[in-house]
Amino acid sequence: MSGDDQQSREAAVNAAFERGDNQRGLELLRSLAAHYPDPARFHRQAVIEEQIGSADKALSAHLACLSLAPNNPMAYLYGGYCLHQQGRTEDALSVFSLGSDLDGSLLAAPQPGHGQETERRLATCNSALRAHFSRLHEEAVGDALEVARIRESVWVRTHDCPQSPPASGQQPHLFYVPGLEPIRYADTHALDWAAGIEAASDIIVQEFLDAVPVIGESGRPYLAEGTSLGEAFSPLVGSLNWTALDLYRDGQRNNAIADHFVQTLSVLGNAPLYGLGEMPFEVFFSVLKAGQHISPHYGLSNHSLTVHLPIIAPPNCELAVAGESRPWEPGTLMAFDDTFLHEAVNRSEEDRVVLIFSTWHPDLSNAERQAIQRSFNARQAWLDQRHLPTV
Questions:
Q1: Distance of alpha carbon 319 from alpha carbon 291, whole angstroms
Q2: Is residue 173 part of a domain?
Q3: Which of 361, 317, 382 is nearest to 343 (CA)?
Q4: Do 127 and 226 sit in the same domain of this protein?
Q5: Phi, psi at residue 54, to the nearest 5°?
Q6: Orientation angle between helical segments 22-35 and 2-18, nearest 10 degrees
Q7: How far apart are CA 73 and CA 323, in angstroms?
Q8: Dihedral of the CA atoms 357, 308, 353, 345 (nearest 10)?
Q9: Given Cys at both, which of 20, 41, 280, 368 links 33, Cβ 3.0 to 4.6 Å?
Q10: Residues 127 and 192 in one domain
């Protein structure tokens, strides 16, 4: 009976709007949505409330739609726009941003074909979020002369002015600092910390070999299930064909593994490890199975270098950065800027294992490093506090 009742109520709603009795249609739609909650009904009600109803009821309907369709980016777009029109800017930014997590195109310029109503909302979302994130960055960095280069840096996906890719060929996905030397492969002899790590490479290798029987099953797929990077990466997504054994991940120590690498971490402590706090951002063993290929791709930012120390380096294994291929050699570090196109291949019949960690770009001063940390941490703090508002 409920199905028949819903259909008859729906028909009554449509009939009222068709004959031009919009107020009656809205009243019937309110009743229908209240009795039979459905995201499409709440969305329809919300849009009509914005036109001929009340702002409070419009917002209530948008939030009801979001509660029933939390994975629909359009629900966030329309709900955020309603909040923005009501002057609730901070709430609007939160909702817009949560929607952009689901669909990055909410931060792209509106494209023809969306329809006028959606295009208007996309334009508002785009400009509001870009202005907010750019202001957040500038406020976090400050205006001291010594950090001017960091103030001029770009959060690539959210900067409020269009940016051309660097002439060097770098294509950072996240953050770009202008004026840093483009480093394809670093001259490790010029890095005052590199020789000490290379001198201890036998100790690090032995510590790894001693730990493998204990930690061998603790690895994770480097590319988690559901990662979308295109067909070329599909053999690696959700697969241990490319395994990470994390000592540190996203600034968090993985005690289950790191406790087995006291000497390794002690040696690495002499390097300017990149991090957003006191802990290194990433330190892990990367295991690439026999016959596997990590397709060409670009990294996130040029403010750090990616460093490889070979642990197990069979013949016919190579890293290529900006078209230049180099084999991993036992005891020899390779450091490079991963915002250049790079790839890795294991053509051997054995696993290739390298220890990977990140260091600050050598051109950055301590003040600039701290300014980058402030920008990243301010952005993350804002992202962490986002929430769906109440009416």
A1: 14
A2: no
A3: 317
A4: no
A5: -125, 150
A6: 160
A7: 38
A8: 120
A9: 41
A10: no
Q: Tens digit of pLDDT for each residue in 321-372?
A: 999 999 999 999 999 999 999 999 999 999 999 999 999 999 999 999 999 9
Question: Residue 354: which region, alpha, beta or left (left: phi > 0; alpha: psi -120 to 50)?
Answer: beta
C-beta of residue 352 within 8 angstroms of C-beta of residue 313: yes
Q: What is the pTM of this model?
A: 0.92
Q: Are 155 and 134 in contact (CB under 8 A)?
A: yes
Domain, as residue range, for 67: 2-133
Are 242 and 126 in a shared domain? no
Nearest Cα neighbor of 203 from 273, 284, 264, 245 is: 264
Cβ contact 256:218 at 8 Å = yes
What gap in Å lies between CA 12 and CA 9, rounded to an integer?
5
For 222, which DSSP code?
S
Separation of alpha carbons 308 and 250, rounded Å = 18
CB < 8 Å & 24+ apart, contacts of 209-217: 210/260, 211/257, 211/260, 211/261, 214/260, 215/245, 215/256, 215/257, 215/260
Written in H, E and C, the secondary structure of 230-251 is CHHHCCCECCCCEEEEEEEECC
**DSSP per position, 252-302:** EE-HHHHTT-HHHHHHHTTS-B--SSSS-SEEEEEEE-TT-EEEEE--SBT
Same domain, 271 and 345: yes
Under DSSP, the state recorded for 71 is T
- pLDDT tens-digit readout, 217-255: 888 988 777 777 777 788 788 778 889 999 999 999 999
